[in-house]
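Structure tokens please, single chain.
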Amino acid sequence: MDITDGQDLPNPRHISAADLGRVLLNVGEIGPELTAHPVTPELRLAQLRRVRGLAAFVGEAAGHLSRTIAPDDQADNSMTDDGIPSYDQAYAQAPELDVEIGTLARMRADLDPTHRPAHYPPVSTYERREILLRHAAADDRVLHQQLTSGTADEASFLRAESSADLLLQHDLDHADGTAGPYGPDCARWRRPEGALEYVRQEYLAWLTRPDVPDLYV
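Here you go.
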């Protein structure tokens, strides 16, 4: 099974153990590319994103194959050592992605000032933040789906990272709405993919509030 640049990976839920093994054998070919010098930042970024896609694909495929043998076998949904939820834990209780995208569309329409009844109060900071948070989480989930299917492209990364940055910047300006253990000014969010980790922390904290399942989901 070839995994050269530009070739889509197969559906990780329709792959055999033998095919997964061939993918893993070919992963070693990426090593020399990463050790090559010099390379442009653009090329290095493309290489690293390819590795991320492969990692997501391998995890998804291995999880599916293991569950065909042991249906109760689950992915590791534990927190990281410092208390930040993993991708799986952050979205384990989230609505189905297509349902969430539809809900977001309705919420945006309801909060659009041009359609909001005049007797309604102005859109609050909390309402704006909920849109930003759920939108960033949805974009993170879309990116993950595309990574596991091998269909992620530059726009996929930019969309997810931009949405995460918008939430982080909002919370830096209006920190009273945050709920996770690490605030928006924490240095860890300034590292690569830090904003996406922030989205996962805040989404899980928001989703597991007692009032959320009845009022919002």
